[in-house]
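User: Fold both of these, please.

Assistant: Here is the first one.
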Amino acid sequence: MQVAQFTFNDFQENTYIAHDSSLECVIIDPGCKNANEQNQLITYINDMGLKPVKLINTHCHIDHVLGNAFVAKYYQLELYLHKDELITYADTGRWADMFGLVMDEIPEKKVFIEEGQQLQFGETTLQILFTPGHSIASLSFFEAKSQQVFAGDVLFYGSIGRTDLPGGNMKTLTQSIHHKLFNLPDNTTVWSGHGPKTTIGYEKRTNPFVGLF
């Protein structure tokens, strides 16, 4: 599985396109808020000859969903998310008003997913992990063959997700990190919702926040 990272919007959110040799791809947490950012996604997909087949949210804070409506409409995709994140999504209008952003309606076609299920595209299987704490029902997506995980805002390079937003809880977050993410192989690459990539092993050894559990 190959991963392309794009950093979008005023929150410096990481949007990901994951694809394999089949040329099918998934778009994870599209944060593109304007035509320039939307064109960056389109150009990469076109240049690589990719076929988008799934739109996926790790969680539904406003910075991770600004591009959902555009991607869903442009590529005619259903939105995959945990059903409880609809609570988070419902609050995005308030945040949009606070930051002067335009928030489109949530895509009409949705598929609710949860831990224990898998998402398939091309030759790739993503295992779904339930990792709440930053938001009420955050999900992480692990690809075992290449040992990569999309962790949303649960775990960062040298840090962890904030817990002071609605649905956040420090104990729940650290449990998610210790019991779910830290059970992955140490050389697993972590693609986070903000900042650079890291590895599970590096965060186990050096992250100053994971001892809070």
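And the second sequence with its predicted structure:
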Amino acid sequence: MMKTMRLSIGPIQYFWERQRVLNFYQQAADSAAEIIYLGEVICSKRRLVKLDDWLAIGKELRQGGKEVILSSLTLLEAASELGALKKLCSNESFMVEANDVAAIQLLSTAGKDFVTGPSVNIYNNRSLQLLARKGLKRWVLPVELGLDTLKDLQAQRPDGVETEVFALGRLPLAYSARCYTARSHNLPKDDCQFKCIDYPDGRLLATQEGQEFLVLNGIQTQSALTHQALEQVPELEALGVDVLRISPQLQGTPQIIEIFDAARKGADLAPLGKELLSLLPLGACNGYLVNQAGMDYDAFEVA
């Protein structure tokens, strides 16, 4: 009998007010998601919620039956950030999602199991085998890879390693030492005035022709369209994917989780797809998964 895929809530990628974060995880505690990732993955200057807070939130969620993972920064740029990473990786309460190789090194040296996030470039089976020997227990498919590559990797996946797919959210496309949000306000990164907090779903960037193209989120560049893999849920299940990740957005995340929960339980995908599209800020894309341009959308054919 095929095992039902679990749902995860990825780390919040945006800079939210502290109370908004706390409220979000109160809702997450009552959701159908079995796994919740906590932590700051974009910018170390976002300190309204600190490590001790994440640990406290995590313990409450675990008491409610959730599996909790602490996520690390994706791009380290200073000795202070490395120090914070060492503290995160030394915690004795939760497994860590390593979002760069420094975290992998710290965790593997300490003999700790870990998860790798979508920013870790696992493109072939040799990488999976190597990381499995170092303690990898679950990996997230890089968002630029498609179902054909996933199929090949699943066929040779190491024993004891789970696969997670980024199933909904604006695509994390690039990271830079510069802060794009600060630059868009003519501010230097060191005096950014925390402008990210004014854009709880990121700052939209349009082309000169007015096409909504990208989203600025501090040092991160995202897609303007929201990637979603609802149509591919049956195929992902057939490929043996263990976890579907929902990346939080400002509005509608609880309803989105309900939609994917219904999909994994075999509900009709067509009406679920229409409902899901109504919850996405600017529309959907899924091109990378189906071996097309990332902005493309292989949509449902609804009569």
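The mean pLDDT is 95.
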